[in-house]
C-alpha cells in the first residue's frame, strides 16, 4: 500500500537524511501517489469487470436477476460500494475539478477512509490485514501527529503575526513567530497555513523565505525567532486573505478574534518591530510598502523603543508634527498627531492594556472624534472596536528539494515570477556564511555546511516591479565582495521596461540588457535555457551540479530536458547534474 506511504510526509522526511535521498526523489511523493492511484484504478476496473462477467453468467444459469447477484452477500455489497466510492474519488481528483472546485476534491477524497474499512470487510482470507495494516498504521500515526501539531487541540500552533508588508505586483510578505516542534527548520522548507475564518480545512503551502536562525528585535527589546513567507495574490483564497489583512491596515475591522485577543498596529524601524504611529486617515496616499506589525504591550519608557524612535525621528523630515497626549481615567494613553501641512492624519502609539472578549466598553477614550471614529464604535455602545489580525494555524515545516542546496559544488537556480521564494532563504544564508567566514566547498569535501563554488540565479518575471521582493537581497549580494563572486544573477524580464533613462547593452547570450539606476542588470526576453545549462555545467568539471527549478510546467520540462541532454555531453569531464524541482501540487 505505497499509496498511503506516499502521503505520509513526516515518515518520508526521515529518509531524506539517508543515502536513499540520492537514489529516490522524495519531493515527488505526490507524483508517486498519483501514479500508484492510476495503477490501482486500472486494477480495480479489471477486477470488477471480471466479477461482473462471471456474475452475469452465473445469474443466467440460475435464472436470477442480474442486479440481485451483485448485492446478495457481504463480498458483493462491499465490492460495489468500494467501486462506486473509488469512482467518485477518481472523478473529483481530475485536474480540472481539483483546480476549479478544490473543496469538492478535498471532501470527496476522504471517502478513502470508508474504502479502507470496506476493504477489511471485503477481505475473505485475511490478505488485506497482511498487506494494509503496516502502511495504514504508519499513515495514521503520521496523520495524527500532523493534526495535533496543526490544530490547537493539545498544544497551540497559532502563529502570532508580527508584521505585514505589501509589495508591488500584488505580493504580500508576512512575518510571524517561529513554531518549531521536534524538528529544526532547514533552508527551503515550506509550511502549510490555515486561516480558520476563511476555511478551517483549507491548508495552503508557502515556502519559508527566512533563514532558519533569523530573528527580529521586538518592541520588548528581545530577539524573537521569525518565520517569513511571501505569496502572490492570485487565487480566491489569497485574495480573501490579502483583503482581510488590508482591512486591518485600514483600522476598520471589528472582527473579534477568540485566539489572539490583542492586535497592535505598528511598523518596523531599522529592523526593529515597534508599535509605532500608524496613518489612519489621510488625504495623501500612504506608502504602498508600508509595514505593519503586531507588538506586545510596552512601557513608554522602554529603552529599546526609545532608541529606535530617536533614530527614526532623527532621519525624519525637519517639519515635525504637532503631537498631544490623550489620557483617560485608567491612565491609558495614545498619541494623536496632526500634520502641520494640512493633511488630516491621525496616528497613535498603542500603549493600551490588552483587551479581551470580556471588555464591555473601551478602556481608551478621547475627545478626538477622528480617533474614536477610526478605532471604536460611535458612542461606545457596541463595545471595543479595534482592528484585529486573523488567527493563522501553522503546520510544518515540510521537506523540500532546497534542503540539498548546499550539498553541491555549484548550483543553478531557475525561477519564474513568485517562484523565487524557495531560493530567497538560501541566498540570505549564503550572505550569512560569507560574513561568518565559512570556507568554500571543494570537489573533495562532502560536508553540507560549506559555501558552494558558484550559484547561478536565473529569474524570469513579467513585471519589473516584482524586483522589490528581492531588491534588498540583491543589493546585499552586490555589496559583499565574496558573495558577489559566488552568486551570478541572471535576471530576465519579459514585460515592458522603460529604457528611456536607463543604460542598454547585451549579455553573453545576445539578449538586450538594461542597467537600472540601482545597478541591477536585467536581460529582456526569455532565457536560452539549453545554452545556459550547457555553458554553466562546462565551467565546473569533476563536480556535482544541482539544478533547482520552481516554474510553470513548460519551463520545468524544458529545464529537465536540458539537464538530461547536458549530462550526456559533460559526463566525460566528470560533471554530473541533478535536477530538483519544487512541487506543491495536491
UniProtKB/TrEMBL annotation:
One of its GO terms (cellular component) is plasma membrane. Pfam families: FAD_binding_8, Ferric_reduct, NAD_binding_6. It is found in: Membrane. This is FAD-binding FR-type domain-containing protein. One of its GO terms (molecular function) is oxidoreductase activity. The chain crosses the membrane at residues 35-55, 75-97, 104-122. Residues 140-275 form the FAD-binding FR-type domain. Keywords: Electron transport, Ion transport, Membrane, Oxidoreductase, Transmembrane, Transmembrane helix, Transport. It comes from Coemansia interrupta. One of its GO terms (biological process) is monoatomic ion transport. It is a multi-pass membrane protein. PANTHER family: NADPH OXIDASE, SUPEROXIDE-GENERATING NADPH OXIDASE HEAVY CHAIN SUBUNIT A.
